[in-house]
Structure formats: C-alpha cells, structure tokens
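Loading example: each entry is read as two labelled lines plus one structure line.
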Amino acid sequence: MKQPVYITAASAISIQEPLSESWMQHPVVPQGGAAYAREPDYTPFVKPLEARRMGKLLKRATATAQTVLRQTGIARPEAILTGTGHGCVQNTLTFLNDLCQGGEQMLKPTCFMQSTHNTIGSLTGIQTGSHGYNSTYAHGGTSFECALMNAWDLLQLGRVHNALVSAHDELTDDYYPMLQASGYADGRMTCPTTEASVSCMLQTAAEGPVLLQGVDVLYRPAPEQLLQALDALLEEAGLQRTQVDALLTGANGSGTDRAYDPLTHALPQCELLTYKHLFGESFSAGALGCYVAQACLRHDLLPACLRRGGEDRQPAPRHWLVANCFDGTDYSLILLSKCCDY
Amino acid sequence: MKGTTVCITGAGIVSAIGFGKEETLQALRQGRSGIAPIRYLETTHADEFPSGEVKADTPSLRRRLGMQDGNRTTLLGILAIQEALQQAGITDTRTVSLLSGTTVGGMEETEQHYAEALKHPGTTISIRTHHCGATTDAMAAFFGGFRHTATLSTACSSAANAILRAAEMIQSGRTDICIAGGSECLSKFHLNGFNSLMILDRRPCRPFDAGRAGLNLGEGAGFLVLESEVSARRRKAAVLGWLNGYGNACDAFHQTASSPEGEGAFLAMRQALEMAGLTPADIDYINAHGTGTPNNDASESRAVLRLFGGNYPPISSTKAFTGHTTSASGGIEAVICLLALQEQFLPQNLHFSEPMEGGLLPVQDQQPKRPVRHVLCNAFAFGGNDTSLLLSNQPV
C-alpha cells in the first residue's frame, strides 16, 4: 500500500528573487548566455566568519536547507539526499588550475576537500547533527531526481518519516566556456545557462496541499518505454492519463526538446508549460521544475509567467507531470497532485 | 531481512591485484600485494607514494575491450561489469538498472586536457566525459542500455552506497535486477588532494598497525549483480550470496576526520545487523575500511569495540593489497567478501606488526576457526558518509 508523501516546504536560490515565490507575480526576465543566481542575505543562516570559509554553493545549500527546516520545524531530518552535477565547481577548478599551473606542490587542502560532491550533503549533516541516512548523487542533469527517488523509496519502505532532498549546482566565469565547449550550453538554447540551489522536505506523517505521487528516472528510453513509465506512475497514483492537467517540461529550445513529444502526444488535454525560460538550464534545473510545480500547487495558482502570454489561472491545475530530459540521454518524470483536502 | 530477499548472482572485479575474481583470489591467498611505485599515472610523485595501480595502461585497457576511446574510470568499470553480467548470465540489460559510484569520474582525462589547454591560450576544454554521471552513462552505452542509470558520489563510500541503493530499489519493487558497485582510477587531482591533507604513506600502508602513517591510493572497479530471490529463481541463476542487511549513517562530525567514538561507523554496522536480524556474535568476519590513516583506524577500532566488545570477530583491511580504491573500494571489497564466503578463508591484513593502543588485532591467519557465513563490509568516507554491508552465504 502506497504511503502518501507530502512536500511540506521547498525553497530555491536561482536567477529569480532568492528564497521567495515572488517570481510568480514579478518574474525577472532573463537574458541568454550565462546568468548568475541572485544571492540572498546569508546572515540569518551563516555566521560571517563561517561564511568566509564557504564557497557560494555551500552558503546557498545552508540557506535553502535552513529555510525548509525552519518552515517545517524539523531540526534533524531523518534522511539527507543531495544531487549535484558537478559539486563545488569553484573549488574544483581552483585546485585543478593550481595543480596544472603551479605543479604538484603546496596545494590547498580546503579546495580539495570541498571539491568532493558529498561535501554539500555532509555539511547539512554536520550543521543539523543528523546521524541518519545521507547520500549524494552526481548523475548529470538528473542528480536531483535520483536523490528524490531515493528519498521516495526510503519513505515507502518505512525507513524514515521525513527526508530533506536538495540539488545544488554553481556557475563560474571559467566554467561557462567549458559548458559551451561540451555542448551543455547549446547555442540553440532559448534560455540562459544558470545555477540553482533547491531544497525540499518530504514527509509521510504530515499533511499539506502538495502530494508527491511518484518519480522515475530512465536512461535513453524508447518512446514506448517512456510512456510505460508514465502509465506505471499514474497507475500507482490511481490516475488516468486524461486526469493529468499540466505538463511542465524542461524544454529549453535546444535539439533535445523533441524528447518531450511522446508525452505531449500522450497527454493532449494538458496545459503545456515550461520553466527554464524563467530559471535557465543547469545540472540542477530538474529540481527547479519540481520546485515550480509544488509552488503552484501550494499557492493554488498557475501564474501567467509560466503560460507564455496567458493570464494567471486560479485554481491551479490539480495533477502535474514534471518532465526533464538531460542531454537526450537521462529522462525524469515527477508526478505531483494537489491534495483534495486543501 | 524484512521484505524482499536480495541475493547476488554475479560479481566482477579489477584492481591492482588482478583482472577478475580468479586472479584476485590467487593474490589474496598468496599474500601478494599490488602496491608498487606509480608507473602509469604521470606525476612527479611517482616514486614517492606507492600506489595500487591496475597493471595496464589506458590504451591497452581499450584494446582489451575493443574500444577506440573511453577514460580510465569508464574502462575499469566496464571490465568489472562485464565479468559480473557474464557470471549472472545476463545478456539483455534493457530492464536492468546500473548504479555506479565514483568521485574522480573523468578527472584523470580532464586534468591532461586542462594542462594541454593552458599551453594554448584561448582554447577551452570539453567536460562532456568529465562529470561522474558521464562515466556511468558511458559504461551503460557499452552494454547497449539499461532501464535506469544513476551515479552515487559519497567519496570513499560511493560504491557501497550504490550496492545499498540497489537493494532498496529491489525491495521497493522498482526493479528485479540491479548491477551496482563503483569504479575509480588514479588521478593527479586526488593523489595531490590526499597529499595536501597529509594522509599518504611513503611506505606500503599498514592498516591497524601502531606505526601506520597513512594510506596508499589504489584504483579499480568492483560490481555485483543484485537480484530479488524470486527473479533469480525464475531465471534459474546460480545464487552466489545474499545481501542480508545494510546500514547508512552519517558521522556528522567533520568533513575529513572521523569522530573519536566512530559514531557513524557504529550506527552503520548496527543498522546492518538489525536489518538482518543478526547479533554481533553471528558475524564471522569484518572487512574493515581500514585505510591505514591514524584517524580512520582508531575511530573504526573504537566503533567495532563498541558494537562487538572485546570478543570481536576476525577483522582485516585488504587495502594493503589493493591500495585505497576510494569510491570503488566498497565494490571491490564486497567482491572480496563474497570470495571469502565462497572459498571459506579470511583475507589477511598485510604489514601488521604491532597493535595500536586500544586497537584491534587484525587477521594474520587465512584459515578461519569457524565457518564464514556472515560478513560485514565497511566503507567510510569524507563527510562521515559511512556505510556497512552485510553479506552472507545463506539467507536469514
């Protein structure tokens, strides 16, 4: 028997107003190219002395996690799951550059230490004194979704009652050209290359307006495999294809947008929505898709900015499929619903 | 174990002590270490820090697999996965999930490209094959595809967490068969990183010895095919062992040091026992994380003594054979544990001469005093990401 899983809080730092849902009414309209996140005031989250020792990613991770923990009143999450495509890029590149320029001597241990991907989730563990389950995924653009899936399974197996799931990726001036050279910052993209930090709390023994109904991550699925996965998610949630009324895709204008065609054809009644035109593309963008959908469900509002020229729609659609495709290889599906009691 | 029983139907390994299970077993039985001066990685530390390199250069690894390209992490992973799938009799991987643990990913290739690019101002390197997920997906592509791929990156416990995660995926009904483990090659980046932390030994490492002075790095890959017992029966696959329990806990103490009481290690081992419904007295062998650093071995000893008391089971670190294969260690050592269960021997703890204060007496005699039925395999990591796997030659 499936346990209901609620997303009881979520927060994000992105190119929109940080730690805020004001993008729903007053979105920042981004330009193309590289766009950096807007930094919040970190003083409520990190002591200034500590902040100086942290790179921007660790500060953001602290701020998004703390926001969610304070909102839910959970001091020590039972599980901490983190996704990051590249981890602390700034530290990694500093160490790599020192190594290649200065030779194999006198290298800074802090940069090395903070180059490992799990330094982010471990920091949350240390900050909260949480000895529970703690794991990190570094699986390109579906890192967050893998972490979300891990949390889902732990909740369903009854091993934990709550899980903090986060995704963090940063952009630097040196790193952006590498993303371009790799084809990850595709010239055809109609949205900027950005950075993102997102945290959300999943709980079983709780209530709230946002119900997480399931998540799946697939490697190079054929169209029929993608639809099989969709149907399996819907079946588990007791839903039919016709009941899904919003499809939020990670379309970004690049060649991989065709990846969503099987879904748009299978769900013709859906309002077709995108989010990357507001939040940009990054290895953690999939987390923003989940964040956007849960914000709409929480506020029961589908804002005009997601509808590309439409108007605000209230109430919001009830059943959302969030789909993301990374680089044409890794696909994720997240199903969310508005809890009918709210 | 409550819920679905998870068994092991395939295993593959490559490390400094050999290609495949047969060579690995021989080296372990003969007490032959793979630690040597660095020969394949280009580094100024080649003769300074003995390491456990896989004894083949990258082009010859490619030739072995008939591949034109592919970085070392990917190639090592493919070799181990190939052996594991073959043993499990799996030819079509389209419904199988692949979970791989790595932290280095494509860094060894990237650091060469980066150094090259510095000589030619204005050039930018591609990181397409660099990030951890890219190496996993490159392994997946070699086999034609998997249903799901994911990359665990919890530093030195990455592969152990991939194996643990495979069990969760099977128990939650997501999949019947998972291939899980990890792959990591030596890189200048992490060799120098560990050196900057001053935890590399200039001599062959001596885990649990009073005179231990740090770790030797290693490289390689280890993967297990994990499967629900129902699926293994249906396929008539030979069952090699069972994953009866596992535990994941966070030390929550420090980014690069373990707590004096070994809290994370203690909790991970205790969870594994509880899940299997076994008591400490049921454990016949512990494959320790045992890196040879003063801090790890003291903390791990404390955790073992807290859980098992003075009457602790035979324990050894096999890192003096393979070097510390970092993210791959949980996979490599899980395969070694499986070999110990199948062949009924205790892997030796090489280079031990004097016990440390408050420490443990590691295995010196390969001959077990009682049947080896249940073993714990520990993998601990930076950030206190501690994991323990409980493998058995029988279900519980």
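Chain B touches chain A through 70 residues (CB under 8 Å).
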